[in-house]
Amino acid sequence: MDMKRFAKYLRIFTIVFLVCFHGAEAYQTQVHDKRHKRVDALFSEWDKETSPGCALAIVQDGKIIYKQGYGMANLDHDIKIKPDTVFRIGSISKQFTAASLLILNERGKLSLDDNIRKYLPEMPEYKWPITIRHLIHHTSGIRDYESLQYLIGEHDDQGEHHNDDIMELVGRQKVLNFRPGDQYLYSNSGYTLLAVIVERVSGRSIGQFVKDNIFIPLGMQSTFIYENNRAVVKNRATGYGRVEGHFFVDETLNESTGDGGVFTTVEDFYLWDQNFYDNKIDCPDFIKKMKQIGKLNNGANAGNQSAGRESGYAFGLSLSAYRGLRTLGHGGAYVGFRARFMQFPDHNFSIICLANLSTINPTELCHKIVDIFLEEYFTEPPKGIRQLETEKQQGSGYKPSQKQLVDYAGDYYSDELKVKYVLRNDKGRLIFAQKNPPTIKPLQAVSEDIFAFEDYNLKFQRDSEGRITGFFIDEERSKNIFFKKVY
């Protein structure tokens, strides 16, 4: 073949290649544009100058393929949400606390199987030892401090608390929910205790330890643990709630850490997400260890088992499945902030959704985004919404007699909570009569000696002669809290 003919064929081949290449590229761009419009539509309810909203990052094959801000970061000053807006992420913070324990364990500073009283001697010596591992996997049986604070009278998460305050409250609890390792029961208390252990072992605040060992190595420059509620934070979103169509500021003075306290952006959190594929943390087998699911005493996985055999709670991470696809991640909810990190490791796909309005459901939004991008890989149909049952029988029909109501009335004191409750018979209904009660509504009679209020059950205790000596209060995460009748 002569050179002129070769050059002619080469030009034709190049033209055809470029047409095909740009055609395919244009097609991919068109597909992405359609998907992005569908994603934007999911957030349209909040994407306005009169509403708080969300920041979003969608990650595919190691890159952020779409990032966006919807709604306002601050309604007072008309500041819009952007991908670099800083949000509080609530319980998603737990994975950084758990990672800190792995780092200290790798350095020989502690063992995950150590009794926590080695580092927290002020904790009660319960019938059974509690280990660091129990705290990490929510199998310790320690009551949740948030429900305890509610019972004390702190109903709006507005109190200014430090880890020492929570330590003191948790340390007064004489009873566990169950024998350590027998059950999985989510407990924020455990992660606050873990933060204290990190600080006592490392000699640094947990904020400084995590910054030095995780945030700086990963380049997370806008991420930090909020240890000073008076600190100025550039690009910070304000948290909001909503009642009867009106927004209100929903923030907190709380400075406790471990179970929460991390502030970040979707752009920064992407760097943490990618570390699960290419570890930059100074801890061998870090990724494998972070995904290690806790075990119960009977050998079963700790955590919610409804998603399959491989599901459970690892190191601040929930391993689960969505429509047949493996996932890992966590959610966060505190005051006016809601957050969700959802990774699909088999497809190198992740979603980071951070919201500054308490009525937004990021988990639901993430699922709808996954439906748009990974639908072709689903192996299971969507699950129907299950009607949750409750022990509180709203319409049980049981009515206590006037004599019973007189017996129930009285003053009751909890030594563990250092609080007094006053029960009174109010026109045939039992009510809390003390200042700042756990509910202003009448207690609901369920059956003889059993009442319900909010998310709690109250069961009266009698002596051998049938006289009421006190009552126990039960809540999902804090059980058998005893109040002694004192008057």
Describe this protein's structure.
With 487 residues, this protein is of the alpha+beta class. The chain folds into three domains: 7-42; 70-78 and 81-377, DD-peptidase/beta-lactamase superfamily (Beta-lactamase); 402-485, Lipocalin (Beta Barrel), CATH 2.40.128. Helix content is 28%, strand content 24%. It contains eleven helices and 22 strands. It has helices at residues 3-42, 94-106, 132-136, 145-152, 163-171, 188-202, 206-218, 266-274, 286-290, 362-373, 402-408, and strands at 54-60, 63-70, 72-74, 79-80, 87-88, 224-225, 240-243, 246-249, 262-264, 312-313, 318-322, 325-334, 337-344, 349-355, 410-414, 419-426, 429-432, 444-447, 450-453, 456-462, 468-475, 478-485. It has an eight-stranded antiparallel beta sheet with strand order 17-16-15-22-21-20-19-18. It has a seven-stranded antiparallel beta sheet with strand order 2-1-14-13-12-11-10, sandwiched between helices. Strand 13 and strand 14 form a beta hairpin. It is globular.
Low-pLDDT runs = 16-29, 385-393
* Portion in beta strands: 15-25%
CATH topology of the largest domain: Beta-lactamase
Please compute the radius of gyration using only Cα atoms.
Answer: 27 Å
**What is the helix tally?**
11
| Total individual domains | 3
Which class best fits the helix and strand makeup?
Answer: alpha+beta
Largest sheet data: 8 strands, antiparallel
Q: How would you write the strand order of the largest sheet?
A: 17-16-15-22-21-20-19-18
Helicity, in percent? 25-40%
CATH architectural label of the largest domain: 3-Layer(aba) Sandwich
Q: How would you sum up the global shape?
A: globular
Number of strands: 22
Identify the CATH homologous superfamily of the largest domain.
Answer: DD-peptidase/beta-lactamase superfamily
Can you give the mean pLDDT? 91
